[in-house]
Amino acid sequence: MRRLLAALLAPALGCARTTPPTPVVPEWTISGSPTLTIGAYDAEPGHELATVSGARMEHGVIVIANSGAHELQSFDSTGKLLGFIGRQGQGPGEFLGVLRLSPAPGDSLYVFDSDAHRWSEHDYRGNYGRNLPGGAAALASSVWPYHRILVRSSAGTPVPAWVLTLLDSLPEAKPGSAARQAVMDDLGFLWLQDSLSRSWTIHGNAAQPAGRAVLPAGFALLQLGPDFIVGIEHDSSEQELVRVYHLGRPKGQSMPPALPAGTIGYGDSAARLRMIADASGIVMAQEMFFSNHASYTGSIDSLGAKLASGAELVLTAGDKRHWAGLIYDRQTHTTCALSVGFAPDGWLDGSPFCGR
User: Fold this and answer.
1) Under a CB-based contact definition with an 8 Å cutoff, are residues 341 and 322 in contact?
2) Is the pTM of this model over 0.85?
3) HEC-encoded secondary structure of 192-212
4) What is the pLDDT of residues 219-266, one digit of tens each?
5) How far apart are alpha carbons 28 and 318 in whole angstroms?
6) What whole-number distance in Å separates Cα of residue 18 and Cα of residue 120?
7) N or C: which end of the chain has fewer CB within 10 A?
8) What is the dihedral of CA 87, 93, 94, 96, to 10 degrees?
9) Per-residue confidence (pLDDT) for residue 43, from 0 to 100
10) Are strands 149-152 and 180-184 parallel, antiparallel or unpaired?
C-alpha cells in the first residue's frame, strides 16, 4: 500500500519541484526629495516660467523650453541661470509657439516649434545651430500612437523591433479605460505605464520586465536620464516647477539592443481614412463644449461625440488651454491621434495623424 501511494504521489511531487519560481522584478528607486528645483523665483522679470513644455539635462546643464516667453532657458547643476536663448519671432533661433525638446546626436537637442511648424537643432546648452529643412516633416515625431498606446521616443530615431513586439503582446485595454503610456529612456529601456498609475514597468527586451519604479505624485515626466528623471510639478499656488530626482538603476543590467529596427505602420488604410474623417466632428464637439464651459473636456461622456467609423475615442487631456486624444479601431488596431492647443513634438495643431 505504501509503495502504491508513493508511486501515485511521485509525479505530483516531481511537478511541484520543477515549477519555476515567479521571477523577482527589481525596484528602480526614485529619491524621496528632488536634487534640483527650478521655479518662478529663479527667473528674471519677463522670463518667469510659464507653459513649460520641455526640459532636458546633459552634462549637468538643464535646458527648459519656456513656451510662455518664447525662449529656452539654461541652468547649471546648482540651478544657477546661465542664460536665455531665443525670443518671439520667425527668424533663425526665434520661436512662435509651444516648444518641445528631443535628444539629437552628439548630446545636442532638437526643438520643435508648433506654430512655426519647424525643427531646429541646438547644442546641449540650448544655443541655436540651424533649422532643419523639411518643416514639421523633417523628423518623425517623438510622440506617436500605436495600438491604443501613446509612445514617446527620440525624434527621428528608429524604434527597436523588440519594442514593437512587446507593445503588440500587451493585452488589449478595455473600452473606456485610459490610454497606456510608454516612454523610451535615454539608455534604450522602455517604461510602460498602465492607465493613470504612478507605477511604471521597465523593459529591456520583449520578455521579462527589468524592473519597476514609482514616480512622485503629481509629476509630469519630461526625461528619463541615466541616473535622474526630469519633470514638472506645481507648488501650492499652482506655479510651475521643474524638478530633478535621482534615479537608482540596479547594477549589472545589460543595455537593450537598438537593432534590428522595427517598422511602424500607419494601420489599415480604409480604417485610417474613416477615423480621420471623424476628427472634424470631434474638434467641433470640443469647441462647442469650450463655448459653454470656457474649457475643453477630458471626459468622453461630457463630450458626447459620435464616431461614424465605429472606432473608440480616448481623450488623454482636456483643460482651459488644450485637449488631446486617440482614436482606436479595435478590429484593425489602427490608432490615430489629435491635439488642439498644446501639441506634442511634431504634431500639427488640429491635424490628425496615424502611426509615426
Assistant:
1) yes
2) yes
3) EECCCCCEEEEECCCCCCCEE
4) 999 999 999 999 999 988 888 899 999 999 998 888 999 999 998 888
5) 31
6) 57
7) N
8) -120
9) 59
10) parallel
